[in-house]
Design goal:
CATH topology: OB fold (Dihydrolipoamide Acetyltransferase, E2P)
Radius of gyration: 15 Å
CATH architecture: Beta Barrel
Order of helices and strands: HEEEHEEEEEEE
Shape: globular
Largest sheet: 6 strands, antiparallel
Distance between the termini: 24 Å
Number of helices: 2
Strand content: 35-45%
Number of strands: 10
CATH class: Mainly Beta
CATH superfamily: Nucleic acid-binding proteins
Structural class: mainly beta
Amino acid sequence: MIEDKVSFDDFKKLDIRIGKVVSVDNHPNADKLYILKIDIGGDIKQCVAGLKQYLRPEQILNKSLAVIVNLQPAVLRGVESQVMLLAASTESTTGRDVVLVVPEKELPPGSRVS
């Protein structure tokens, strides 16, 4: 059950956009992390994502997905992450399933999610 509530005004502060993954590289200092370059409408941002145990690079590369673009950057294992991608996960009989939050149809990078 979800207990914590966020006001609509707080939600509106999040700038969620569609980004297109243009590169996927292994993190040099972490076994479970990728370093993604994501096109956010002509602006390339870097994302450090813990997806390595769930998705192969070819499942991510050239994928359009939802990203939060106005979070404070974070440094993960020595590499700056400038955006956060959105993914959903659930436990299954075979372990944890993780899927990316993607648009129903192709949209230009930078399209706003609201």
